[in-house]
Write a structure and sequence with these properties.
globular; Integral_membrane_YjbE; 82% helix; transmembrane; Integral_membrane_TerC; 11 helices; Tellurium resistance protein TerC; membrane
Length: 224
């Protein structure tokens, strides 16, 4: 099984995972940033584990996923909501218990990974050429790198709070890319040069402005 062709395909899959999982590391970091250190580690491990399981299943079913109409559009809209929601500040009186916070963080990681992982899934499915062993091995090897990356991003966010906005912008950009890659929308945008770039910039800016306004409003209300 482990001949040169298998090894080369495995290396390609690992590379795809590393290159396309940068956004996922950002999701993990932002989703877990408010948790206590002990719960943070659990949320990262559980969220990543469940996301990988879902991604393996999705990759195996990639051929069927391609037939779902408006898949990229729906995924992009969900991811846009996640990118905004990660900027929101909740009132302390309304905060849920820590254990439930961890569950919510895990849910966010899994949902965002599924939405963002469509390109990843399709690329891996193509590189694996239907070999499920290759798909599973590639993901297993890549997961520790994604977890390690999220830990580094978490530490950076604790030191530089503005990185939360940068992370949200990355997610929003990925979301808009998904939406504009939807076949119907891509065909429509192709009629006007430069319109796609303008739409992307406007939507990402809108997400960041709404997030900033909500956080500022929350801080002002909390101070009062």
């Amino acid at each position: 099984m482990f001949d040169s062709a298998f090894i080369s395909s495995l290396l390609v899959i690992i590379t795809i995972n590393i290159v396309l999982s940068g956004d996922n590391a950002v999701v993990i970091a932002i989703a877990c940033r408010k948790l206590a250190p002990a719960q943070r580690k659990k949320a990262i491990l559980w969220g990543t584990f469940l996301a990988v399981i879902v991604r393996v299943i999705a990759t195996v079913l990639a051929v069927y996923l391609l037939k779902i109409p408006f898949l990229y559009l729906v995924g992009g809209v969900v991811l846009l909501w996640i990118s905004y929601n990660l900027l929101r500040e909740e009132d302390e009186d309304n905060q849920i218990k820590s254990s439930e916070d961890m569950v919510q963080a895990v849910k966010t990681i899994v949902v965002a990974d599924v939405m963002m992982g469509l390109d990843n899934v399709l690329a891996i499915a193509g590189a694996a050429n239907g070999n499920i062993v290759l798909i599973v091995l590639g993901l297993i090897i890549s997961v520790p790198l994604m977890v390690f990356g999220s830990q580094l991003i978490l530490k950076a966010m604790e030191r530089f709070s503005w990185l939360v906005y940068l992370g949200s912008a990355v997610l929003a950009w990925a979301a808009v890319n998904m939406i504009t890659n939807e076949e119907v929308i891509a065909d429509w945008l192709s009629q006007w040069t430069g319109l796609e770039a303008v739409i992307k910039i406007v939507i990402v800016a809108l997400v960041l402005l709404l997030g900033y306004w909500q956080r500022s409003h929350h801080d002002q209300a909390h101070a009062e």
